[in-house]
Write a structure and sequence with these properties.
471 residues; mainly beta; Immunoglobulin-like; 4 domains; 7-stranded mixed beta sheet; 5-stranded antiparallel beta sheet; 2 helices; 39 strands; CBM_1st_SusF; SusF_N
Length: 471
């Protein structure tokens, strides 16, 4: 279907050497004032919706309109051999046949509206120029519309993985995390870290609409799998056409990432160290003496205490040689962390202090809490974790908490943070009260060593363990 928009033109201009723009064809804005001229008739023909799905693989241009060139009855004015089209707020070079660069057009549609497969419309005008050698006049058409329809596969708002390790049902299905913010067509990747405890574990992907309705529904918006049943490839293509189950051959911890725009998957087996370290501005950027975070299950989830002040990183060894985790490795961080000015890869903390961090290196997430106070609590004070008299003093030089003149008993006591039980430390033992002081863990057993001067070293800077001394 072709529609025409006339270039209707009649204006008066004085002869002054200049070039300027105007936007209303019926009343052109001209600074130079030549003799009165008539330009005759021209028109713009609109085109049907431009469907990205119809683009040929080797296509380089796209037709956005048809042009019948305006003319002039004044032989002294000659039209320059160029056109431009303004789409929304951006201007592109336009060929005489009404085509522009396909890549420019596609990128502009994506930048303006995203990649969702919905019809989009832009207000548009076409402009050209006439000149008599001393005066140049820009003529602009009336407004018309250019419409586009991006092509994309169905992408749901959320995805789940099911399989031998998840019961093949809704109750056991595991949710993937959407990577990035906003529209899934602009950020189409989803990810999960999971653990398999047996070999040859089969899997499939379930979209949200299946999870909330018919779990095993197939079709373009249904179950997602691979083309060949039992495919053990660690990366490849996904399909909704007779989807089969992929297979993970070895037990272990895996990160699975799916890209639902490309319909691809990638499976990575994760091998994590027991500790990571936190060199940074607060301690001179020295991994050898940095605080250590511990992952007792070797699953990439590290916890521990660290004093932060400005920039820092995580290293996989007590040196710079074993690899790092930087700002770009994380998709979620707490509010007290940022990337500074964004000019380097460091992570920054602008509120100096001791923090308890949980770093999920597999999923790229950090959570944490600032330690505002550390208390002794136990049988000796009725297990009152908000007892101000039992608040310890932070020794910044030695990275430890100290308290003197107390009377902890062998009947049992612990350390608690922020007047609550959420963060507490006790002995890594199977019995309590325990006499183990050189290996303290979160939620550990009550300590059964009496004394009056207590020092707690929570940062693992000179030991792989959190420990305390009692005198």
């Amino acid at each position: 279907m072709i529609k025409k928009i006339l270039f209707g033109i009649a204006f008066v201009a004085s002869v002054v050497a200049c070039t300027d723009d105007y936007k209303d064809w019926a009343s052109p804005q001209v600074i130079a004032q030549p003799d009165q001229v008539s330009f005759g008739k021209g028109s713009i023909s609109t085109v049907d919706v431009i469907k990205f799905a119809d683009f040929a693989e080797d296509q380089t241009t796209v037709k956005v309109c048809g042009i019948t060139a305006p003319t002039t009855t004044d032989a002294s004015f000659v039209r320059e051999d160029r056109y431009v089209i303004t789409l929304g707020g951006k201007t592109f070079d336009l060929a005489a046949d009404g085509t522009i660069s396909k890549d420019d057009f596609v990128n502009y549609v994506y930048a303006t509206y995203g990649k969702a497969p919905s019809e989009r419309a832009f207000d548009a005008t076409v402009s050209t120029w006439f000149s008599n050698g001393s005066t140049t006049v820009k003529t602009t058409s009336d407004v018309f519309q250019v419409k586009a329809l991006p092509v994309a596969p169905f992408i749901d708002e959320a995805y789940y993985i099911t399989g031998d390790f998840a019961g093949w049902n809704k109750e056991g299905a595991l949710a993937l995390t959407h990577l990035g913010d906003g529209n899934v067509y602009d950020n189409p990747e989803f990810q999960i870290v999971l653990k398999t405890t047996a070999a040859n574990q089969y899997w499939k992907i379930i979209p949200k609409n299946n999870y909330e309705g018919d779990f095993w529904k197939t079709g373009e918006d249904g179950v997602v799998g691979v083309a060949v049943d039992g495919d053990t490839s660690m990366e490849g293509l996904l399909t909704t056409d007779n989807p089969q189950a992929g297979k993970i051959e070895e037990e272990g911890i895996y990160r699975i990432t799916i890209n639902m725009m490309e319909y691809t998957y990638k499976i990575e087996k994760l091998n994590f160290t027991e500790y990571i370290y936190v060199p940074g501005n607060a301690q001179g950027w020295a991994p050898a003496s940095a605080a250590a975070l511990h992952s007792p299950n070797f699953d990439g989830i590290y916890t521990g205490y660290v004093y932060l002040d400005g920039g820092f990183k995580f290293t996989k060894e007590r040196s710079w040689d074993g690899g790092e985790y930087n700002w770009s490795n994380f998709i979620e961080v707490p509010d007290f962390l940022n990337n500074g000015a964004g000019t380097d890869t460091n992570i920054y903390c602008d509120d100096p202090g001791l923090y308890y961090l949980t770093v999920d290196a597999a999923s790229g997430k950090i959570t944490g809490e600032k330690i505002n106070n550390m208390n002794l609590v136990g049988d000796f004070n009725g297990w009152n974790n908000a007892d101000d008299a039992m608040q310890m003093t932070w020794d910044a030089a030695n990275l430890c908490y100290t308290i003197t003149g107390v009377a902890v008993t062998a009947n049992g006591w612990k350390f608690t943070a922020n007047n609550a039980w959420d963060i507490n430390l006790g002995s890594n033992d199977s019995v309590e009260p325990s006499t183990i002081l050189n290996d303290l863990v979160g939620g550990g057993k009550n300590i059964g060593v009496a004394g009056s001067t207590i020092k707690l070293y929570p940062c693992r800077t000179n030991s792989d363990k959190i420990y305390c001394t009692v005198e």
